[in-house]
């Protein structure tokens, strides 16, 4: 029996599944970033503080990285929508994952948590 985190990723269809798994590896590859199951989704903490989450956008049906306090990050590709603190970065699962863009944004998010 899978834990809720692994089950979340396993139940997705390809190519969304592979995209989310790649984002998971990218996030957990940072030192002091830990993965938790919170609010029914994968959440990532940096040094014990909430950093980001992974989810699928209801309207666009694309995976995204949700950034806690993303409202403090200025990047043209981040969407605020109706969220107060969080901004999201949509990831097109049908194209190459923009790893450098993600790393640049995560660098800013990690700096907010330091």
**SS-based structural class?**
alpha+beta
Main beta sheet: strand number and arrangement? Answer: 6 strands, antiparallel
Radius of gyration: 13 Å
Arrangement of strands in the largest sheet: 1-2-3-4-6-5
How confident is the prediction overall: mean pLDDT?
95
Q: How far apart are the termini?
A: 36 Å
Please state roughly what percent of the residues sit in beta strands, choosing from under 5%, 5-15%, 15-25%, 25-35%, 35-45% or over 45%. 25-35%
Order of helices and strands: HHEEEEEEH
- Outline type: globular
Number of helices: 3
Contiguous low-pLDDT stretches (5 residues minimum) are none
**Helix fraction by DSSP (H/I, runs of at least 4):** 25-40%
Q: Write down how many β-strands occur, each being a DSSP E stretch of 2 or more residues.
A: 6
Question: What characteristics describe this protein?
Answer:
3 helices, 114 residues, alpha+beta
Outline:
With 114 residues, the chain is α+β, with helices and mostly antiparallel strands.
């Amino acid at each position: 029996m899978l834990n809720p985190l692994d089950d979340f990723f396993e139940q997705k269809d390809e190519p969304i599944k592979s995209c989310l798994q790649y984002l998971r590896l990218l996030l957990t590859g940072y030192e002091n970033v830990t993965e938790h199951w919170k609010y029914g989704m994968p959440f990532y903490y940096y040094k014990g503080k909430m950093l980001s989450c992974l989810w699928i956008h209801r309207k666009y049906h694309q995976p995204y990285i949700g950034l806690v306090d993303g409202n403090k990050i200025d990047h043209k590709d981040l969407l605020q929508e109706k969220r107060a603190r969080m901004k999201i970065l949509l990831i097109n699962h049908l194209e190459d994952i923009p790893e450098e863009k993600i790393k640049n944004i995560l660098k800013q998010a990690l700096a907010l948590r330091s």
